[in-house]
Amino acid sequence: MVSRILLWVVSCVFVMLCLLAAEVAVVVGLLASEVAVVAGSLAFEVAVVAGSLASEVAVASVVAVASVVAVAAAAGSASDSMTTSGSMTGGMVAGGSVVARVAADPGERAACAKSHQGLC
To answer: Which residues cross the membrane (predicted)?
Structure first.
């Protein structure tokens, strides 16, 4: 009779240990998956921020190139694709290229110069 009671107690303890081990495994699994989700979210946020910075740098570079081309054109310098003798007006950045035309008269040149004050 004592051996049966002892066997029953040992069996109960074993079952409780197995249940506890299963709960620990589930908790560890949940923690691991939460860590993976957080790491994935952080990686995504870093990628988004890096992408935003890259696009901002690209836009800033295009604007800087447009400013240099406009200043060079206003100074009357020549390039391979255009020769100018006055101010640039109607300048625009589109897809990384600069599209501009030469101001036709002195009044238009003055208006162009005034519109670019503080940009260069």
So the answer is: 57-78
